[in-house]
Design brief:
The protein has helices at about 20-25, 30-40, 50-65, 90-100, 115-130, 155, 205-230, 245-255, 265-270, 275-285, and strands spanning about 5-10, 15-20, 40-45, 75-80, 105-110, 135-145, 160-170, 180-185, 190, 205, 235-240, 260-265, 295-300, 305-315. It is α/β, with parallel strands linked by helices. Strands 1, 4, 5, 6, 7, 8, 11, 12, 13 and 14 form a ten-stranded mixed β-sheet that branches. The chain has a two-stranded antiparallel ribbon with strand order 2-3. The chain has a two-stranded antiparallel sheet with strand order 9-10. It is globular, with a radius of gyration of 18 Å. Bound molecules: coenzyme A (COA).
Length: about 325
């Protein structure tokens, strides 16, 4: 079967950490409210010289170095983001230039909000199949602090900045690989962008999004498992979009699953949209918890509305 295997990861986070306590001095909120409703304790915010593209370049550089590949071996570069600093050049093109990827390597941004890394992985597999080539760089990066209204307590406590990157190899092995994607146009989560005229900050119908997420997560996991013929026991890790701890807990209960399999790190990142899944993959790899040969499911859901799941194997 043709499919992608994960061979290396990288990550980049802004230095500045913002605690719940710090936010509670800026808006009418509390550490207790934020942790009990979301599981979030701290998040990172970009400094003046940082943005989604600078983070993407750092994460991608690290993933490329760890893969042991030269830049000329990368055959496509896809960046998932909803907070690109510029409409053009895309973040992916900025990465292409910074890493000296070859000119034959297509580079494009994908905006599928919090499902962006899953959409990007599917697009990378499609591009390699169409154009040829073995290795793809897929990045998720966000500077959501630039899109938020810092005075809106219903959103400013939720989001953070960061980037994660993955190098995938397209192989003909029997390793499991499948992707499922979906979309339903709806503005339950809405954001203008820093490069758009009349930029408007993130707004969200929190309760509607919560209901959507607890439905989309188990359905996407079920669909992508069906496509591979695997079941939950065959997975070493389920890496969900890190929006809210309660969304993942709800899914674990619904599936009667082992909670230890469902990686969580929103306590120290908040919701980093397209970056959350690759940042989590990178943490798992860096901490030695992700082992060669393990099979992972990644599940994204969020703005658009969009959702999706991917299953692939880690092969160092
Ligand atoms: N601090 C203190 N109080 C807050 C607050 C904050 N940061 N934000 C909202 N509140 C208040 C509200 O004003 C409301 O007060 P009221 O009852 O006096 O009107 C009360 O808390 C309850 O607000 P509500 O919106 O009903 O809270 P909730 O239990 O639905 O939790 C979310 C809010 C955002 C945490 C929750 O809806 C959620 O997690 N939604 C999904 C969000 C998400 O995951 N989005 C990304 C998907 S990709």
């Amino acid at each position: 079967m043709n499919g992608l295997q994960l061979i290396a990861t990288g990550g980049a986070l802004p230095e500045r950490t913002v605690t719940n306590e710090e936010l509670s001095r800026m808006v009418d909120t509390s550490d207790e409210w934020i942790t009990t409703r979301t599981g979030i304790r701290t998040r990172h915010y970009c400094g003046e010289t940082e943005n989604a593209a600078t983070l993407a370049i750092r994460a991608a550089q690290q993933a490329l170095e760890r893969s042991g590949l030269g830049p000329e071996e990368i055959s496509c570069c896809i960046c998932a983001t909803l907070s690109a600093p510029d409409a053009t050049p895309s973040v992916a093109c900025q990465v292409q230039r910074a890493l000296h990827l070859p000119e034959g390597c297509p580079a494009l941004d994908v905006n599928a909000a919090c499902s962006g890394f899953i959409y990007g992985t599917a697009a990378a597999n499609g591009l390699l199949a169409t154009l040829g080539g073995k290795y793809a760089l897929v990045i998720g990066c966000e500077a959501l602090s630039r899109l938020m209204d810092p005075k809106d307590r219903s959103t400013c406590v939720l989001f953070g900045d960061g980037a994660g990157a993955a190098v995938f190899e397209r192989t003909e092995s029997n390793a499991p690989f499948a992707v499922t994607l979906g979309a339903r146009g709806d503005d339950a989560i809405h954001a203008g962008g820093p490069s758009r005229t009349g930029s408007s900050p993130i707004t969200m119908d929190g309760k509607a999004v919560f209901r959507f997420a607890v439905d989309a997560l188990p359905k996407s996991l079920d669909r992508v498992l069906q496509k591979t013929g695997l079941n939950l026991d065959d997975l070493s890790w389920v890496v969900c979009h890190q929006a809210n701890s309660r969304i993942i807990d709800h899914c674990v209960r619904h599936l009667n699953a082992d909670p230890a399999k469902f990686y969580k790190n929103m306590d120290h990142h908040g919701n980093t949209s397209a970056a959350s899944i690759p940042v989590a993959l990178n943490e798992l790899a860096e901490s030695g918890q992700l082992l060669p040969g393990q099979t992972i499911a990644c599940i994204g859901f969020g703005g658009g509305l969009t959702w999706g799941g991917a299953i692939f194997q880690y092969r160092k």
